[in-house]
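Quick one, tokens below:
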């Protein structure tokens, strides 16, 4: 299955994000690569947090996997937003099945969250969450009520178009960095103890 995801954090250094990860999660090994390598800790069947500078100055980027659900890191993202009194934006799409989620936290509060969740039995996508005021980009979108299935008359969120536009609506932008990021810190996210 193909998964697209991105977390953007405004005004917080990647070192500060790293410190918060170490405080919030059980972590293990660390490594730095000049590319993202999600499978780096799979020898112990553990996932990786990948921290880097985002394309725009003043933004850090975090890539992560999920052990259980796409919501499992919500507390951490909300905490990051509260601790640094900043904006944290999360976008996700499971492209194979069509699940999509967008969340924006500002100063520790959830200001927007949309979750179109796939259910295999019966095979359909349900409007799981729709919280907050729609952005300018969403002004012409039609969503079903909570718990109702998505149909062709409703807007399905696409990671590469819609969610990127929502990132911009919620503040992602600014001055591009002079140099492209080439230092990606990988932190082992322990779901099993180290041997």
């Amino acid at each position: 299955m193909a998964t697209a995801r991105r977390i953007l954090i405004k005004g917080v250094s990647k070192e500060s994000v790293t410190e918060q990860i170490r405080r919030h999660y059980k972590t293990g090994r660390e490594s730095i690569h000049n590319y993202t390598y999600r499978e780096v800790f799979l020898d112990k069947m553990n996932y990786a947090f990948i921290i880097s500078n985002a394309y725009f100055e003043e933004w850090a980027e975090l890539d992560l996997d999920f052990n259980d659900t796409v919501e499992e890191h919500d507390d951490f993202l909300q905490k990051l937003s509260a601790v640094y009194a900043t904006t944290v934006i999360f976008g996700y799409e499971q492209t194979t099945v069509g699940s999509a989620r967008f969340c924006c936290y500002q100063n520790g509060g959830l200001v927007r969250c949309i979750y179109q969740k796939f259910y295999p039995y019966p095979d359909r996508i349900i409007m799981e969450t729709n919280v907050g005021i729609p952005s300018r980009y969403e002004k012409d979108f039609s969503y079903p009520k909570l718990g109702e299935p998505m149909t062709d008359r409703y807007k399905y969120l696409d990671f590469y178009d819609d969610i990127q536009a929502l990132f911009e609506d919620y503040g992602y932008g600014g001055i591009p960095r002079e140099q492209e990021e080439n230092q990606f810190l990988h932190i082992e996210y322990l779901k099993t103890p180290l041997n």
